[in-house]
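Subject: sequence -> structure tokens, single chain

Hey, anyone have a minute? Need the predicted structure for the following. Not urgent.
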Amino acid sequence: MPVPFFDLRRQYEAIHREVEEAVLSVARSLHYIGGPKVEELEDLIAALLGGGQAIAVSSGTDALLVSLMALAVGPGDEVVIPAFSFFATAGVVSRLGARPLLVDIELKSFNLDPERLERALTPKVKAIMPAHLFGQCAAMREIMAIADGRGLPVVEDAAQALGAADGGRPAGTMGATGCFSFFPTKNLGAMGDGGLIFCADATLAEKIRLLRNHGAQPKYYHRLIGGNFRLDPLQAAVLLAKLPHLAAWTEARQRNAARYRQLFAAYGVRAEQVGLPAERPGVEHVYHQFVVRCVERDNLRAHLERRAIGSEVYYPRPFHLQECFAGLGHGRGDFPCAERAADEVLALPIFPELRAEEQEEVVRAIAEFFASKP
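Reply:
Had a minute. Here:
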């Protein structure tokens, strides 16, 4: 049985009438920049996150970039980031002329290690930017305690974690800003790029709104040098049509994750063969990805591919081994947990519409891979 890694068509077919009517409503309105759809989305996301202000922007990458711009990060500054994440986490720091200060991850959670964070801080650090990778919050209580003790702002890279929580506090609401992505494959995805910044501080939120639109207020009078970081109202309309389904989709992902655990146990796949995702106590994991670890990752993935079973590697190379960051002066062995993660991680299908029999096919194929070993 072929099993897709991700099948957006299944979602679209279930809600296409709502989505298409939302898009048509914008087309007919002739209001194509900003306006009521964007404002409605901002209000609803802010309410979902428990109050505060939400500022819709052009992408999750731009959410991170504008957040750092609002915090005046620039040349000579350092921003702490995990050594293992999606490229945008590091790229936005370098684009502002600052230095990404890499810190190794906790191998179980794939997130920033707070113990290593405290040892890594220097007088040049301007902000700390943990990523909530794969849908699970980083150790935010520990990270916030360290940041507050040093008077440092925290920018949460919550691109993969809308709906996640740590100790009851939603991802993206614990730092100075929380940055979300609406890339089409995200738990809440647009029909293109989109993002959002959550901010509880009204003064900082006003600055972010200025930066989103070339720093102008009023029009053509520029208080700051910003950029065009606006969310298209067409994308806002799509997201508004999808938002009522988000809770059900999250529950489906969590059920799929629980079913994987049951299936791996039933098929006798041992922890030393496939390491399953570890959930930190007190967290709400939304399973943007279901990422396992396997020493024989590449051979296992090739086996799944031969069976027409989709999988993906997020991410095959940590930041310190990327060619574009050679100037940071790091080498192999500097961040061993990030390197091991890059060598071992494998994401399995987890999307909400995944069928139980497809999950069993995935686990059966993995069990057969290890059963064939001498």
